[in-house]
User: Fold this.
Amino acid sequence: MGVFDYMEKYGHEQIIYFHDKTTGLKGITAIHDTTLGPAIGGTRLWNYENEEAALFDVIRLSRGMTYKCSASDCNCGGGKTVLLGDPKTVKNEGYLRAYGRHIQSLNGRFYTGEDMNINVEDCSYMEMESDFINGKATMSGNPSPVTSYGTYWGVKAAAFEKYGNNSLKGKVIAVQGLGAVGYILCEYLHKEGAKLIVTDIAEDRIKKAVAEFGAKAVGVNEIYGVECDIFAPCSIGAVLNNDTIPQLKCEIVAGCANNVLLDENKHGDMLLERGILYAPDFVINAAGLINVYQEFFPPYNREETLLKVEKIYDRLLKIFAYAKENKINTQLAATRLAEERIEMIKNMRSNYIPTSKNL
Assistant:
């Protein structure tokens, strides 16, 4: 599929390819929809198999950010950048500052910050060249712990919907991915008394989880078929598909990964048909966005931010109720509600108001 085909299919405004020959920087920035405000979304550095895989990822991630912003009552649109390369070798000051200059060239249409393999220190270099970096160390900081906290509340909401009680004590939870967000999520789950089954591509993370949480370790491909109450995908996207969904032996899917469903409609319906409750990814993992969004309204207040994050619980219950009422899968329900808010704001702004920004 060509770039314009993707843009037409998913409704993107811009896809920008960029390259800095001096530092070797290569990346794609996707701006999906700016109806609600400037695009916002993290920067992901990954050693993609090819450019097509990188394009597919940034297309889905940026679109997800539009819905995440809308569902979280944030007045921003969706955007994302993926950088192509080996995180262990490509990053240095020049590389990151060159990327910051690319962000600055977009002149505020896109704000970015941490994501996979891009941390607070990296953002400090980017900030040397750009006014449009969020997740600043001096303000909201690393969003990963806050994302974990919000996901934890989302897991509890799903448990309440399924069991009538939001306690996770004694629940068997299979966690796929022990990165910056997944590992901290395990800390919350373990503290509440959940029994953990874990997997990751990094052996040291698995050993640490086994030692600290008494978790059971399984292979990366075994995690789908383990007997559990809740499956928590916390790694890459598109992990639930034709091959993996039939393997699931859980009652709930609720985790912090983006774009968990390869095909939102088809695989959302497959989960519904199997009686598995799905917590839509762009709602349950929105706490990182909510966290950095508060930087637009200084001074940043951590306690107030966490109270806003906890509202993920209520948003999910609303989505679950909407899905049941309309007899649709929960991913579709969340998407419809997000689109309704975007359309409402679009219509509300249809009347012309003269300001200096219009000139």
In short: The radius of gyration is 20 Å. Residues 144-341 form a domain with the Rossmann fold fold (CATH 3.40.50.720).
